[in-house]
Amino acid sequence: MECLKVLFLLSSVQLSRQYLLPDHIAPSHYQLRLLYDIDPSTNFSFFGVADIQLTVKKSTSKIILHAQDYMISDDKVSVVGQKEVPKVTGVKLNDTYNFLEISLDKDLEENGKYKLTIPFYGNLVKGLDGAYISSYTNRQTQKTEYLISTQFEAISARKGFPCFDEPMYKATYSIIIGHSKEYTAVSNMPLAASASENALEDYWPWDVVGKRFRKERSSFVWDQFAKSVPMSTYLVAFVVSKFSHVVSPPELSKTQFRIWARGDAIDQTSYAAKIGPQVLSYFEKWFNVSFPLPKQDMMAIPDFSAGAMENWGLITYRETALLYSDKESSFLNKERIAEVVAHELAHQWFGNLVTMKWWSDLWLNEGFATFVSSVGVSAVEPTWRADRSYAVENTLSVLSLDALESSHPVSAPLDDPKRISEIFDAISYRKGSTLIRMMLMFLGEGVFRQALHNYLMKYSYSNAEQDDLWAELTAASLRSGSLTRNITVKEVMDTWTTQTGYPILTVTRDYSDKSLTISQKRYLSLGVGRTSQAWWVPLSVLCEKDRKSESESVQWLGDTEGVTNEHRYEHGSGASEWVLFNYNMIAPYRVNYDQRNWKLLIQTLTSDQYTLIPVEGRVQLLSDAFELAWNNQLDYGMTLQLASYLKRETEYLPLYTGLSALAKIENVLKRSSEYGAFQKFIRRLLNNVYQKGGLALKRIVDGDDLNSVKLQTTVSSWACSVKIPGCEENAIDMFNDWMRTDRPDENNPYVVPPSALRHGIPLYSCVNLIPVDLRRTVYCSAIRRGGVSLWRWSLARRRASNVATSRDALQHALACSRDVWVLAQYLEWTVSDGSEVRRQDAGNVIAAVTRSATGYYVAKDFIYGRIQEISKAFNGQDRRMGGIIKTLLGQFTTKKELDEFLEWKKLNEKYLSASKIAVAQGIENARVNIEWIQRNKRTVVDKMREYSM
C-alpha cells in the first residue's frame, strides 16, 4: 500500500507540474500598450503590444508564458538581450494549458536580462472574465452604451495580454491605453500623461489600425498611467467607459478616493464615498501598515461575475455591492455594501501586498478579507455589531458545508488550474475567516495584530504560504506567553487547515463531583466519523453560576486527547446546574451532552432566565441540537422543546439560527402532504414576535436598529410562507396600492409627507408606501398569489428601475410565480443573449426557481434538457454551473430522483468536469435528505403536531 501511495503522490506532482510554468524565467516589468475600439460595428477590435522585462534563472532556449483568446503576430515577436540578440525560431500556442511557447536559436544566459516583445490583436467579447465588454442603457438617450472592464482573477489575465499568469510572478506595470476621446480610462495607478500620437505605431501603424477601426487617429487619445508597485497578474485592472465619478472628502483619508458609476446612477455613490476612505484609514491603523498607493478608485460595473474584485488601486464591483439609494435600497443592502467594501479594502494588504504563492492557499486572501471586513464594518458602523453577526453567520455556514465527506481542506491541494474556481467557496472564505477569528481569540488581539504587522512587513510585495504566517504568530505568542501547553501555532492550526471537516465533542458529566469527560471525532452529516482525525480544540466553558469564565484563558483539548480515551475536565457547576461549551463560538465544532445536561440547559432556555445563556451560546445550542437530531444523535422531542423557547426570543441571531435549522426540515417537507404540519408548528412559534412589527403592522419598527430590522424582515418572510393570518393579505394590499398609482416607478418609494409625521398619522396609512426592507417579501407574496398580468407588471417595474438593488429584489420575486409556463419563460431567458436576465444574474434566477415548490419541476426539466446551452452560457463561470447543480440536488428527497440524476450525469460529464466538488457535495446532500426522510420524517411530523396543539 505504501508503495502505491508514493507512486500516486509522485504522479499527482507530475500532473500538477505540467499545468505550471517552468521556473526558468521570471518577469520583472511589463510595459503594456493597448488600443481599443469600443464599437460593435467593428466587433470591438483591439491591438496590443506587451514588452516584458525578463530575468533568466536557468539557461533555456524556450520562453513559456500564458496567452488566450487573441491572435499573436508571430513574425513580430522578438527577444532583445544586453549583449546578443537571440532569434525567434518558433511561436506556438498550446490551447490545453494556454501556454505560449517561444523557441529561440540559442540559450538565454543564466542571470541574463532580456526584453520580450509580443504584438497581439483580436476582438473583445461580452463576457464576465478577462478583458470584456459590458453594456447599459443610457436612461436619457435610451441608447446602449458600452464599456471595457476586466476580471483577471484567477487565471484570466492571460485573456487580456500575454503574461506569466501565476500569482508568484510579481512584476511592476506601465500601462498605456488608447481609446476614443469620448471615453475615460482608469487603471491601477494614477494617470500620468495623455498624448495624441499612436503609442503602438512601431508595431501597429495607423494605416493598419485605421482599416480595422474605420476611424481617424485624431479621434483617439493614448493615456499613460504611472508605474505600478510589484503585483501579481490577477490584480492588473483597467476600465474604459463614459462613467461619471465623485471624489470622497479629503479629510476622511490621505488616499484619494473616487467612486465611479453610470452617469444616471452617480447619485447612488455617496455611502460608498463615505465609508470607503473611513475603512481604509482604520485598516492602516489596525495593521500598522500604510496603504502604498496614492489613490483608490472604486467602480460599479453593470455586468460583473463576482460581488467585487480587489484589483490594487481599482476595485471593481457589481452595482448591487457598491451603489446605495436612500429611497430604494434596504438596510440589508446597505450592510452588504459596507461588508463588500471592507472586504475588498482588506485585500489591499492580504492578497495584494502579500500574496499566496499558489491558489492552494487562497484562504490566506479570502479568509483574512472575510474576517477583517467585520473589523472594518464594526469600526465605521459600531451599532451593527458586525463582529458578532458575521462570526455567527460564517460559523453556521461552515458547520453545514464542512460536515460533508465531500468538503475540502482550507488549504486545498490543486492539480489543475481549471479547478481553482471550485475553491472560491464557503470553506476558503467563511471557514478561513472563522479560523482567523479563533486565532485572535486564543492569542489575544494585541499579539495577533503584532504578528500580522510583522508578517505584512516581512513579505511586502512578495509571496507567502500559511507556514510563513504560522511562524510569525508563534514568534509573537512566545514573546507574550499567550499560547499555553508549549505548542506552536502551526501544530494547532495545521489540524484545522490541512484536514477536511471539524470535530464533535461528546461531553459526559459525572454528577457526583465537578468533573466531566470529553471525546472527539470528526462530525459528518451522515453520522459516521473517522477516529483517525483529531484536532487541537480550544475550549471555552461557561458554568451556570460562574459568569467569570468568559474572561478566563482558553483551555485546550489536544489532538491526541479524547480520541482513543476520554479526556477528563474539571468544572465549577453543581449537580443541578448546567455546563455550556463553546458559549462564545470560539471555534467551529459541535457539542453533544449527556441527557441530564441537555435538560438543564433546556430548562433555563424555556424559562424567563434564558438570557443567562449568552447570545452566541444560544446560537450554538440551537444549531447543535437540530443537527444532532437530524442524524439521530439527539431526540427530536428534546430538540423541538428547546426550539419552543424562540417564542420569547428578542435577539435576531438566535432566531435566525433556529429558523435556518427549521428551513432544512422545510426543504424536505415542502413538496409532501405533511407540509401543513410544519407550517402550523412555525405559526405557533412565530405568531407573537410577528405581531410586533414588519408586515403585521405594514411598517418597520425601530428602523435605525439593523438587528431589529433583520428580525422583522426574517419573521415577515416566514410568516407569509407559513400562512400566518393577515400576512399575505397585508402584502397584497400594499402591492395593489402600488399598482393603482398613476406613476408606479416614481411612487415606490412614496415620500412620507412631513405633515403626516407631525400629526401622528401611522406610516402604513400613507398610500403606496412599501417599506424598502419589506419589499422582497411583499413582491414575492403578491407574485405568488397573483396571475400573469401581475408578473408582467412587476417585470416592467424591474425594467424601469434605475437602482440595481431594487431590480435585484424584483428579479428574486419573479421566481415566486406558480405559473409553470411563466417560470419556463423566465428560465429560457437565462440562456438567451440580450434577454431580460443579464448573464451575471442567470445563475441566481435558475437557483431561485429551482428552490420553489412549483419551480423545482420546471427547473429540473430545464437543467436536464438544456445542459449544453447552460454550459455555453456559463462558459468560464464554472462556479455558477456547480452552484446550479448543487441547488438542484439539494431539493431531492427520493432515491428515484437521485438515481435519475446519476444516470443523467454519466451522459453529461463533460459539462460538469470543472464542478466536481460542488456536484459531489450536492450528491451527498441528496443522500442526507433521503436518509432523513426514511429515518425521521414520521417522528418529526408527529412531534410538530404535538407541539402545535
From TrEMBL:
InterPro entries: Aminopeptidase_N-like_N, Aminopeptidase_N-like_N_sf, ERAP1-like_C_dom, M1_APN-typ, Peptidase_M1, Peptidase_M1_aminopeptidases, Peptidase_M1_dom, Peptidase_M4/M1_CTD_sf. Substrate binds at E153, G307, A308, M309, E310, N311, R879. The keyword DNA-binding does not apply. One of its GO terms (molecular function) is peptide binding. It holds the Pfam family Peptidase_M1_N. Residues 1-18 form the signal peptide. The keyword Ligase does not apply. Residues 578-927 form the ERAP1-like C-terminal domain. The record marks Y429 as: Transition state stabilizer. It comes from the Eukaryota. Binds 1 zinc ion per subunit. Keywords: Aminopeptidase, Cell membrane, Disulfide bond, Glycoprotein, GPI-anchor, Hydrolase, Lipoprotein, Membrane, Metal-binding, Metalloprotease, Protease, Signal, Transmembrane, Transmembrane helix, Zinc. The active site is at E344. Its EC number is 3.4.11.-. Its main location: membrane. Residues 271-496 form the Peptidase M1 membrane alanine aminopeptidase domain. This is Aminopeptidase.
